Amino acid sequence: MDDDLTLALFDRQMRREARPEHAPARVEQAGGVVRQVAPGEMWNGVLWSALDEQNADAAIARQVVEYGARPDVESFEWKLYSHDRPADLGARLAAAGFEVGESEALMVAEAEAIAGITAPLPDGLELLPVTDAAGAELLAAVHDAAFTVGTGARVKARLLAQLEAAPQNVLALLVMAGDRPVCAARMDFAEGTDFAGLWGGGTVAEWRGRGIYRALIAHRARVAVERGYRYLFVDASDQSRPILARLGFAQLATTTPYEYQLR
């Protein structure tokens, strides 16, 4: 995999030419900014920008005003990549009132290579698809336990919206130990692109270190290959980045979320 060419392809397909997650979300391009606008339970934010020192501050102010005019949207995100310009765009966002979140590594691998990894689930665990509200509730509970308590509700709302509007574009999974969910993960399929996104891979603390996360990566890679996707990408935390690197993922950039609270 040529890292530079792959990053350029990612920027074009997933950012500059981004498609909405699903109806009723829409993607708008104006003033050097590509953004998704959606009802409040879905993700709202800037996906890509082509700005410079002269027009960046005005573009930032415009997003605040225009998202602020939507009463159903409480906040929106400006997703900043380490190669975005101008070089001080992050500082400009912070000065405009955006709250900076934790940076993550954009990691990409060829799906076929990852699909060939042997990574079975430990004995006694069962892999189940999430297709309804009950499953989404369990997935949200894993998210709260594995990450930050209280964040699962937003993940649940977004997943239910995806399952209702475009179930073919999302794969959500639970790993069950009897009747207890111990791991959850998702994969989004961006139609018309070469990329499938891996999201929300989280394991509750007492089940970590047993190969469950690795098994779900390999399983999703096989599904991506079956559906014709060439690449997998992940916004990886410091915890998952070393695992992904050992599996063959390459870090192509760093992503940092800047969130603006509107109300």
Automatic annotation (TrEMBL):
Question: Is the Oxidoreductase keyword given for this protein?
Answer: no
Q: Which GO terms describe its molecular function?
A: acyltransferase activity, transferring groups other than amino-acyl groups
Q: Which InterPro entries match?
A: Acyl_CoA_acyltransferase, GNAT_dom
Sorted keywords for this record are:
Transferase
Q: What name does this protein carry?
A: GNAT family N-acetyltransferase
Q: Which residues form the N-acetyltransferase domain?
A: 125-263
